[in-house]
Prior knowledge:
Helix content: 25-40%
Largest sheet: 8 strands, mixed
CATH topology of the domain at 59-209 and 237-278: Rossmann fold
CATH class of the domain at 59-209 and 237-278: Alpha Beta
Low-confidence stretches: 1-18
CATH superfamily of the domain at 59-209 and 237-278: Vaccinia Virus protein VP39
CATH architecture of the domain at 59-209 and 237-278: 3-Layer(aba) Sandwich
Shape: globular
Number of strands: 8
Bound molecules: S-adenosylmethionine
Order of helices and strands: HHHEHEHEHHEHEHHEEHE
Distance between the termini: 51 Å
Radius of gyration: 18 Å
Structural class: alpha/beta
Number of helices: 11
Amino acid sequence: xxxxxxxxxxxxxxxxxxxxxxxxxxxxxxxxxxxxxxxxxxxxxxxxxxxxxxxxxxxxxxxxxxxxxxxxxxxxxxxxxxxxxxxxxxxxxxxxxxxxxxxxxxxxxxxxxxxxxxxxxxxxxxxxxxxxxxxxxxxxxxxxxxxxxxxxxxxxxxxxxxxxxxxxxxxxxxxxxxxxxxxxxxxxxxxxxxxxxxxxxxxxxxxxxxxxxxxxxxxxxxxxxxxxxxxxxxxxxxxxxxxxxxxxxxxxxxxxxxxxxxxxxxxxxxxxxxxxxxx
Length: 279
Ligand SMILES: C[S@@+](CC[C@H](N)C(=O)[O-])C[C@H]1O[C@@H](n2cnc3c(N)ncnc32)[C@H](O)[C@@H]1O
């Protein structure tokens, strides 16, 4: 087996437990981190991020709008009395992480974080400390294997699936290819939730700016990462058995915006956001 080209900067070569990750290969979590203005990215990630932004400049604001939607969605859910969050596709910790937003409203809120990128999990374990009253856990698992998440002992220690849960899959389902059946995977998760549970989603779409989003998808694909924009109709399939809360499925920047609606409306919309409540 060949040695990875780079070890993570905080990993001593003698540390046998250090994650051995090849940072010369771009990863979606780190590309997104770069667009958000984070520092947890490497040259290979920056190359993809800059190459994509060069042909689709709106993507940087789009990434920030998506992150802001996550914060507003979690705040809304916590204000509705939701106390348990299953966040799949956590991303590298940055401002407004799910437990920070939720526990600000309810310090006893419980959050299970799931991501399939070992780099994300290393950061998460180091940085995502919850309150004393609440609980958090971090599990490296893949959204394409719902059972490995729903039956994971650490997750079941934090989340009681017998009570309402907010399933949060924000900015992640576009990384699941059509042939992997994203709606079928989502349904395996939503079927495990009791009525009164919620489901928060954001998803890249080409419904509003097909050329810009198409350019971004092409540039991203050339890096072998790849994402699939989906239509309102396709994303709506995820919400089978759920009723959408107001304002329904809208561009992320327009979902209960904190800012002036007119200002948010002027943006290049590249992703839908929605929250449903299980009936
Ligand atoms: C664009 S980031 C979104 C982060 C965060 N949810 C947000 O919206 O700010 C997408 C995250 O999904 C993760 N991801 C992609 N495919 C995944 C999969 N099949 N299973 C679990 N996580 C996945 C990536 O590692 C990355 O951290």
